[in-house]
Design a protein that fits this description.
It is elongated, with a radius of gyration of 31 Å. By secondary structure, it is an alpha+beta fold. The longest helix has about 40 residues. Helix content is about 15%, strand content about 60%. The strands form 2 sheets. Strands 1, 2, 3, 4, 5, 6, 7, 8, 9 and 12 form a 10-stranded antiparallel sheet that branches. The protein folds into 2 domains: about 40 residues; about 150 residues, Beta Barrel (Porin), CATH 2.40.160. This is Outer membrane protein beta-barrel domain-containing protein. Pfam families: OMP_b-brl_2. It comes from Dyadobacter soli. InterPro entries: Beta-barrel_OMP_2.
Length: about 240
Amino acid sequence: MFTFRYQQVTMQIAIAMKRLFTLIIMIIAAQTAIAQSATETRRWEFGAMLGPQVSFLVPRQDGDKPLKGVVAGLDVGYRFQDAAKGWSVHLQPYFSGFRGKGTSGVKNSNFYLEIKSKIRSFNTPLLFRYTFSNGKIRPFAELGAQCMVASRFSYKISGMNCPEGAPCEPLNEEQINQKPGGPRITALASAGVQIDVGKVTIPITIRLVENVKKQETYDFGGVEYKVPKSRVVQLTAGVTF
């Protein structure tokens, strides 16, 4: 009787241990699958960015002032490896806006103008990024190009022109939502750092946008004039999931 009871208890314990072992194996397998899925999913990154920017002419012209603006966009990235360290590619479509205000001539003189301008554009940069380390704080560098797919500009000029020996003429001209030439290709170079905060990542980036078009030169009466090119510096911060 005791032997039979012992065998029953032993069998029940064996069955329970087998079930527990099977449950542990299933939990480990599930956790491994989740970890692998998270790792694979983590290769893709989705985020948004926002920050100030400044544009200036190269070479600088007398009286020229930099234009200040804002940039806001999205970030879709893909890592070529499971680890954070290494190469990744990023598509970062963004909106760019500038506002400018300047003057020409001397106020209360024979010639004086006030000029206000506004520029808006939509750009699609493609960047190749190299992240230098793993860990929660990761510096990186980027290189790529972008295409300005849509842009509009507006300006308003007001003032007074008083030619010598002629009556003064008020000057007023305004153009709204004008479309410039075709899409422009520009080069980009960036450096920054990614900081992990909980389940999100905060990228902070400083970027240089350079016009790759060959600088145009004109000859005015034997004097060579080089048309200045624009250069943009952007400082952005964002969040990536």
